[in-house]
Amino acid sequence: MTETILPRKTPVRAAVAAWIGTTLEYYDFAVYGTSSALVLNVLFFSPQLPTGISVLLSLITFAVGYAVRPIGSLILGPMGDRFGRKFVMMLTLFGIGGCTFLVGCLPTFAQIGSLAPILLVTIRVIQGLCLSGEQPSAITMSLEHSSERRRGFITSFTTLGSASGTLLTLLFFIPITSMPSAQLLSWGWRVPFWFSAVVVVVAYLIRRHVQEPPEFIETRATKVNVAPLRHVLRFHWRAVLRIVFCALIAGTSYMMQTFSVAFGTSGYKLDKPTMLLTTTVSAVIALAITPLAGFLVDKIGRKTMFLIGTIGVGITMAPYLWSITTGNWALIFLFGIINYSFFYSMVNASWPAFFAEMFPGRLRVSGLALGTQIGFAISGVIGPVLATALAGANLKDWVGPSMVAIGFMVFAGVSALTAKETGKYTLKELDEVQQSEREKDVITAAIHLPNTTTPRLAARPGLE
Description:
The chain has helices at 11-43, 51-67, 69-82, 85-103, 109-112, 115-145, 151-177, 181-186, 191-194, 196-207, 214-221, 228-235, 237-246, 250-267, 272-300, 302-326, 329-356, 364-390, 399-417, 427-433, 437-446; strands spanning 2-6, 453-457. The chain is mainly α. It is globular.
């Protein structure tokens, strides 16, 4: 009988690899979302359309990338459980970055007419399919490389990319939006999209050194004839549904970073660079708050932290949007920081471990991908689009969009209350806790090959 030496856990390397990939994902999200609110509505749609309609159409193309993500999760989730977390992370890295770069190369409506938005939507569809596997694989990778007492903290670095990706975007857009209009609309808007190539190269150099988690290799050593997706839908559909509703709270983030920019600059003619500076400052503060919140996730629990953040972000969206209508920059910055930097950082720090630990390791990527991508798709479509529609043709009404955020809060909060607190269990114990006796019997019956290898951990000291 031969031995398979399992790689040692490298939580720091796994956390950095997850963080840089999510930075690319949110860089894409923020670049496209910010461009949708500021320039894509002008460049890719007929100039004869009213401002509110062109912004709405532009945000619909943004939403398309989220609408297709559940389809991608059906493909990439099972691939992550069958072929490896790293395999999917590398695949999605080049898919996301390549599509972002291509958007910056597209001809505009003035150059090719109605074919321009068609090409834009096509790239967004491909990109959305790739996005569906990035975070679930990265979160699972970092979770399974973590020490048992720091899983919340280590996985929080995955969603730290939401702040760093947003910040990276805005560092580009603040000077670019200060350019003369002719230069901005001719070539300036393309530069942030092209910069994604640099992020891809950096992410690749980091990720190529990360090995598959020991738990995945050990699990794969026992060959089980079980289709991950079918197994998730048969035995863990309640967890998937719970995550779908919890993930709706992400809609408040899309409203903050996409809708509110259009609301302020198009509806109330506020200064574009200053409006973008609001989310820039919020993102900088979130870079510090998210790891701190991740540390607290391991102390007070995933569920508790998620609920605090969810309630806070839902309630504070209303005063943030109201402050935009006043034109008072002090209030805009204050409520923007409270909403995104503090409360949404709590959500971002807690949900990776909270959601991933609802599934046993053999099905973790499949279950996490399906639940989150359906939830993100719904909130990504409903959030900016419904908020824009309720704001009126001139983008003046703040009450309707605020109700959308509160609706997200209610669905996410009530769903979270039905979940277990999983922080007290080890990953091995979670495999037992999250499986019914019937499921265990099915897995036992599906083992069709005896172990030919005996996995053991590499005898190397320390953690990297």
